[in-house]
Amino acid sequence: MTTTAIVMMIIAMITVWGGLVAAVINLARHPEVAEAEPEPPVEL
Amino acid sequence: MAIATTQARKREAFGSRNVFILSAIGSAVGLGNIWRFPYVAYEGGGGAFLIPYLCALLTAGIPLLFLDYAIGHRFRGSPPLAFRRMHRAAEPLGWWQVLICIVIAVYYAVIIAWAAMYTWFSARLTWGAGNEEGFFFADFLQMGDVAKGGLSVTFVPQVGLPLVAVWVVVIVIMALGVRRGVGRANLVLMPLLTVMFVILVVQSLFLPGAMDGLNAFFAPNWEALANPGVWASAYGHIFFSLSVAFGIMVTYSSYLRRKTDLSGSGLVVAFANSGFEILAGIGVFAALGFMAQVQGTEVAGVASAGIGLAFVAFPTIVSQAAGGTIIGVLFFGALVFAGLTSMISILEVIVAALQDKLGWSRVRTTLTVTIPLAIVSIALFSTTTALAVLDTTDAFVNAFGIMAVAFVAVVVVAWLLQKLPALQAHLNERSSFRIGTVWKVLIAGLAPIVLGYLFVSELIAKLSEPYGDYPMWFLSIFGWGMVISLVVLSLLLSLLPWSGRSRAKDDPEYDEFLTNEHYDPDPETDTVRTPAGSTTGERS
Fold first, then answer.
1. Between A9, A24, A33, which is nearest B268 by CB?
2. Among B25, B79, B98, B268, which is 20 to 30 Å from B347 by CA?
3. For residue B155, what are the β-bridge partners?
4. Identity of the residue in A13, A17, A37 whose CB atom sits nearest the CB atom of B258
5. CA distances (Å), origin B452, targets B53, B72, B249, B407
């Protein structure tokens, strides 16, 4: 692989997979609120 | 009586936020991620394509995903009900999306059936090395020519029987409901798909020539960025890849609890979808690099997309590679699983719409909806002319169904009904990732421009010459006639009155939601259901 191809591969991985990791971390920091809503019913 | 019916019909819900996210990823990650993205990126400048791709993701894909989430969660319904609750006159938009889903579901199933058969063929190299192309078109599909013989009624058992099996599987999943069917299927299939795909990619990387393939995929061609067509293809790809604007995300988000982090979840879904595409690009081009080396050509000579990539190029790789059988089983197995999770989400739009409209139980609605769809699907796609019908309906429903409804929907929601400030407030009320004016500008300004441009260029392309050189009568029925009839039917369906049993008229959960959120009461549910569950006026 050429150097520019390797650089572009690394940038692609960092932005997209890094974005995924950041999004997951953000969501984990905001856990689902346990609310007063009853459990969803079991369907037929 | 009234109390009994309302209590029995609580709206379904996902078991948890994570199940919703997994299901939304399952919907977004489909065949397009695996067989479309790698080639689109390669054609659009390789590594340089990352720039328009990320731009499209951030400025159109994610904002539109948030819009769908906001509509589904705020109005708590399948597309027809959600748009009706937004404004009575917007209901046809919802039916249009449902009808698009019906068309897609009918042909999507057969691709899953092909992939399932090819998983089996890979294990035994049934096609015979060197005969991959002939095997697919002549032996497997027994492809006939619509221009000569018209629409075929010749049943092709090796396609028809697995197609029946695919329908049985999805009907069972749909009948089990959102929590036990859709949610659980995604909970099992998505981790399995990810593991299989990672193994596939790693194995492809060890093939001789893999690095040449990756080089072709990632080497940037910066001149491509000056071509508006490349930017259009990035926006078009992101748009289809995320499954936005045809009702799926509206439906799924209507099954979320009141206080769910919508934009935070949306970011995970969007980046997981793109993450999968990058992975697929690496896997597919590593394998194509190997194929080019074996054939002694350049990667450019073997790069392809869609059905040609999956059912001709990949079988060739499977025949030639050491351990090719494993690659084949993993690749086609991944196509089956990615296809199934997307198929489920498409069917959910249809089932949910009918459930909202008729107020029927899950099982009854599912069987009433899916069995006729299965029959049409089997009738059209287990014959020798399946590929022509599939190719045409797919091209037309994408361009003049999804693209058109998306354009009309953003214009209606943003400009005519001016709902963006309310939807923005709804998202920010419960989400970790706050959205501001930029979101409104992107939806009201950029999205209609991009979608309008894509729509017009598709229109010019398809009007200038007959698509795929199919005969005119054929294109008039399965192309133009089909897409126009979707619009007409959606208007007709909106004229049908909603009965007292439907969720438009009787939805105590929605009333409670509106009260808790301090939103204005819904004029329709409010007038029908009087306080304390009295039956007075129930059927009016």
1. A24
2. B268
3. B383
4. A37
5. 19, 24, 22, 6
Angle at B360 between CA B345 and CA B358, to 5 degrees: 90
Give the side-chain half-sphere CA count within 13 A for B468.
20
Catalogue all structural domains in chain B, each as residue range(s) with its CATH number.
2-504 (1.20.1740)
Longest dimension (CA), chain A: 58
Tokens of B134: 């002939």
- ipTM rounded to 2 decimals: 0.92
Task: Provide the token pair at B34.
Answer: 């695996």
- Whole-prediction pTM value? 0.93
- Put simply, the answer to whether B50 touches A40 (Cβ < 8 Å) is no
Query: How far from B387 is each of B100, B164, B218, B394, B484, CA to CA, in Å?
Result: 19, 17, 32, 10, 22
Cβ separation A15–B50 shorter than 8 A: yes
Closest CA to B387 of B161, B144, B116: B144
Q: What is the pLDDT of residues B318-351, one digit of tens each?
A: 999 999 999 999 999 999 999 999 999 999 999 9
Q: CA–CA distance from B38 to each of B57, B318, B337 (Å)?
A: 16, 19, 19
Alpha-helical regions (H) of B44-131: 50-56, 62-75, 79-86, 91-124
Cross-chain residue pair B214–A9, CB shorter than 8 Å: yes
A42 touches chain B (CB under 8 A): yes
Contact A16 B271 (CB under 8 A): yes
Q: Is A34 on the interface with B (CB under 8 A)?
A: no
Three-state SS annotation for chain A: CCHHHHHHHHHHHHHHHHHHHHHHHHHHHCCCCCCCCCCCCCCC
Distance in angstroms (rounded) separating the CA atoms of residues B521 and B414: 22
| Residue B186 backbone dihedrals phi, psi, to 5 degrees | -70, -35
List the single residue in A11, A15, A33 with the smallest CB-CB distance to B259. Answer: A33
Q: Mark yes or no for CB contact B271/A29 under 8 Å.
A: no
C-alpha B29: how far from its chain's center? 8
- Reported as a single tens digit per residue, the pLDDT across B175-203 is 999 999 999 999 999 999 999 999 999 99
**CA gap B236, B55 in Å, rounded:** 12
Distance CA B143, CA B137 (A): 6
Sign of CA dihedral B454, B401, B165, B78: positive
Which chain B residue lies closest to A28 (C-alpha atoms)? B264
